[in-house]
Amino acid sequence: MTVTAVSLESEILAALDTVADPELDQPITELGFVRSVSIADDGVTVHLRLPTAFCSPNFAYLMASDAYDALRALDGIGEVRVLLDDHHDSDKINEGLAAEAGYVGTFGGEAEESLDELRTKFLRKAHTAAMERCVSALMRRKKLGPNEIHQLTLRDLPDGREKSALLRRRFALGLSMCPNSKVVVGDDGHPLPDEAVPMRLRFARSVRISMEGNAHFCRGLLATRYDDGGVATPQFTNTRTRSSR
Amino acid sequence: MYTKDGNSYFIVDGHVHIWDGREANLRNVHGKQFIDCFYDYHRNLSPEDVVWDYDTYTYYGGERLMRDLFVDGYVDHAIFQATLLSDFYINGFGQTEEAFGLAQRHPDKLTYNHAYDPRNGEAGLAQLRRDAERMNLQGVKLYTAEWHGDSRGYKLDEPWSRRYLEECIELGIRNIHVHKGPTIRPLDRDAFDVADIDKVATDYLELNFIVEHVGLPRLEDFCWIATQESNVYGGLAVAIPFIHTRPRYFAQIIGELLYWIGEDKILFASDYALWTPKWLVEKFVDFQIPEDMLGEYAPITVDQKRKILGLNAAALYDIDVPAELRLATPGQDTVDVAAGAKEAVPL
After folding, report:
1. B249 touches chain A (CB under 8 A)
2. Using one digit for the tens of pLDDT, what is the confidence trace for B30-70?
């Protein structure tokens, strides 16, 4: 195996790391949804798998097409083939991706415009959950009550994983990144009246719990379905003979 | 009935099935995918010692059901929820006649809820009238993601669905059990969205809407609409097995439900044979919010457990509860409005 090939493998993995399950807000690589990656002279084939044959076809398509787009952006990768295994819409989605038919072309009469609104809806949920994690952690640490959090700004949050996650979600939604911005905001990014903040946080907790619960289901069912203890690492094979990409 | 520590509980299992997922009944690959998906849920979330082998799981029949529910499972009354899936199975997935026949033989123990599909139009309405009379229906179970020819789902607030709901009112069918699924047209939207339940619950106050699986995977959206509507209930099927695999997570689910929708509107269900009721009842009675979460959630009381395990469903279905198993002071313990519903204002 050449040095170049190793680096192509890690580039592929890094590209797939950027693809998230919109419902769970976690990368498909960590969730174990990437079954295998094979690198050949003419290109790369990635097989994806999901926890059930009946996972939502719209989300399945989003993940598969995001993976396709992420891989296509890599220099010298060759032809990209993304195949979704064992799903009730596998044939439809795989044919659509291979033909670069797009969402509407893939689903025909079942599609209307695009999946943009769906994507935004789940980005908002992801932001709401990330906001709750940051605020609840700070409330526990500083013994703050729900009526004391309306003035919290981004600069009040300690640096760390939770804050970075919140900032990433805010960036994705185009919300203010200014350190003086309020942390607890509505879906539109605007601050709320002080008295509405505790209920916003209360609802945000439900969003966070719901998303975490779905992740428990998905990880558990995937591990049971494929009987591999939920091993997240995709199987790599590399038969590429050319060293330069 | 289940008794523990001097407390007795009347048990109503709000969601049970007799299905046939055997190979001979599969219409296509989706039938196989569907029963396999159920089996994965069963294997993943059941305690190891109550996991069935695959062949038993695909078909178990009425005798086994009677034993698992009423002999071993502490259940006093159970409600069949029909799951037709005619596009996947030759003779349907849920076994209508077998379940209905069993309910006729044991009316004190079993209630049969049938299903309809509003995409069947006028012919389906006529069928619903015949079914309601023959089966003396009190409830129906609707799977909004059911495949039907070219269609892979519908919304409850579509015109034909409204006509069926209005027919239910006419026919005395009061309880509408709703199970959301992954497909709907257009695929642009979230198929699990519960906004359509919100609309019809507002418009048809004569009906009770029992949202199966407490709206999972959209627990938060379900909680939010349930606070606004007095006639929306939550069925615990599929959520409650977390009590074994992830008890701390279950504490958060039940804590959220008690806060948002309240103790009067949560219904126990095993989703038999996805899971068997025996261990679910035992673990739920033993369950308590972990000490370190008591800042967020109040402890669950014995009377709250009584309501959830049976008394709430008994009230919805007029099931007679022996005097000694009712609450000490019925009515006085009823919580009309959940805490979250009192405080919630649209954001």
Report:
1. yes
2. 999 999 999 999 999 999 999 999 999 999 999 999 999 99
- Tell me which amino acid residue A224 is: T
Q: Answer yes or no: do A54 and B33 touch at CB < 8 A.
A: yes
Average confidence (pLDDT) over B250-274: 97
Whether A53 contacts chain B with CB within 8 A: yes
Rounded to whole angstroms, how far apart are CA atoms A99 and A85? 17
In which band, very low, low, confident or very high, does the pLDDT at B347 lie, cut at 50, 70 and 90?
A: very low
The mean pLDDT of A198-222, rounded to a whole number, is 96
Can you list the domains of chain A with their CATH numbers?
3-114+220-238 (3.30.300.130), 116-215 (no CATH)
Name the residue in chain A with its Cα closest to that of B38.
A52
Q: Is residue B202 part of a domain?
A: yes
Domain region containing B165? 14-322
- Of the candidates A73, A15, A200, A91, the one whose C-alpha atom is nearest the C-alpha of residue B29 is A91
Could you give the ipTM of this predicted complex?
Answer: 0.93
- CB contact under 8 Å between B220 and A121, yes or no, is no
pLDDT of residue A106: 97
How many angstroms separate the CA of residue A224 from the nearest CA in chain B? 6
State whether residue B242 sits within 8 Å of chain A by CB: yes
Of B40, B185, B343, the CB nearest to A225: B40
How crowded is residue A207: how many other Cβ atoms within 10 Å of its Cβ? 24
The reply to whether A119 touches chain B by the CB within 8 Å rule is no
